[in-house]
Amino acid sequence: MHHARTPNRPAPAIAHPPIELRAVGKTYPTPSGPFPALHNITLQIPAGAFVAIVGKSGSGKSTLINMIAGIDRPTHGEVVVAGTPIHTLAEGPLAAWRGRTIGVVFQFFQLLPTLTVAENVILPMDLCRTYPARERRTRAITLLERMGIGEQADKLPSALSGGQQQRAAIARALANDPPILLADEPTGNLDSHTADAVLQLFADLATEGRTVVMVTHERDITRVVTQSITLADGALVTPAVRSAFATDEFLRSCLKSHRPPPNLPPMGGGVDSLPHRGRAGEGESRDE
Predict the structure, then answer these.
(1) Backbone angles phi, psi at 212, to 5 degrees
(2) How far is 52 from 271, CA to CA, in rounded Å?
(3) First-to-final CA distance of the chain
(4) What is the per-residue pLDDT for 168?
(5) pLDDT tens for residues 171-216?
(6) Using CA atoms, how far apart are residues 169 and 223, in angstroms rounded to an integer?
(7) DSSP letter at 194?
(8) Is the pLDDT confidence value at 242 over 90?
(9) What's the 3-state SS for 87-140?
């Protein structure tokens, strides 16, 4: 028997940290030989954080977020999310865990075109049976109204603008009230005004206590996120390394002496505290 839950209540508290990776590596086989996509990633993401994963194309951003979602599995290392070592789960239990724990927002929305917007939001509740059947449409409408598109509930996705479709996708990701929301380039196909509104939605969800992790190429992301993780060639880049390598003079001196930059910390940790939301101009991320 399924008990009713109050729509839009704060996400359930989970043990700290809700996301932890320990020496995670991922290598893909290719015709030309093994390709290492991630190198010994160790990091923790606290509850209620709004975290941006930034880096150039091919740096491992999407691979990292797929590890957290359990969409891909590490070649080595441990992935512990919401207290569950998901790298140990078989496919069936992993899918059930993901449906209850993770909400995923995609760049291209991935709304089913033959279902109405409300039916797209109801679908995860049908699959996971997290709410009684009689409550699912009401919850879907409530979520869509919160996203500002309640009047679009009975339309097909093709009738909505790109920004409205992304809001519908966020509502669908929240359908089962997950404590963790993952977004892969969610603003990549949106104009700047709509992208700003979507980012503010994510910030508001983090304020409620959800953990929001987003892959992005947005250059001015520090004004809304609380933290950032920078990847380069599948490895974490620490603040000290970024600062040291930011000066051409420093690089020239190291190259002239034929030695690596001295006194730099090892790669690791990876989560950099940034200015509070609303403060821009510091700690800009490196994007394409």
Answers:
(1) -115, 125
(2) 9
(3) 50
(4) 95
(5) 999 999 999 999 998 888 888 888 888 899 999 999 999 999 999 8
(6) 23
(7) H
(8) no
(9) HHCCHHHHHHHHHHHEEEECCCCCCCCCCCHHHHHHHHHHHHCCCCHHHHHHHH
What is the rounded CA–CA span in Å between residue 118 and residue 112? Answer: 11
pLDDT 10s digits, 21-76: 999 999 999 999 999 999 999 999 999 999 999 998 889 999 999 999 999 999 99
CA-based nearest residue to 137, from 12, 3, 7:
7
Whether the bond between 17 and the residue before it is cis, its omega within 30 degrees of 0, is: yes
Q: Residue 284's closest CA among 211, 201, 223?
A: 223
Q: Tokens at residue 160, please?
A: 């909505």
Which of these, 203, 178, 29, lies nearest to 186 by C-alpha position? 203
User: Among all chains, which residue has been given the structure tokens 């512990």?
Assistant: 80
Contact predicate 77/23, CB 8 Å = yes
Q: How far apart are CA 262 and CA 264, in angstroms?
A: 6
The pair of structure tokens assigned to 84 is 């569950």
Token pair in block for residue 114? 């033959």
The label of the residue with tokens 């449906």 reads 99
User: Helix (H, G, I), strand (E, B), or coil: what is residue 249?
Assistant: helix
H/E stretch holding 255 = helix 248-257
Q: Is 60 exposed, middle or buried (0-12, 13-18, 19+ CB in 10 A)?
A: buried
Structure tokens at 149: 């598109």
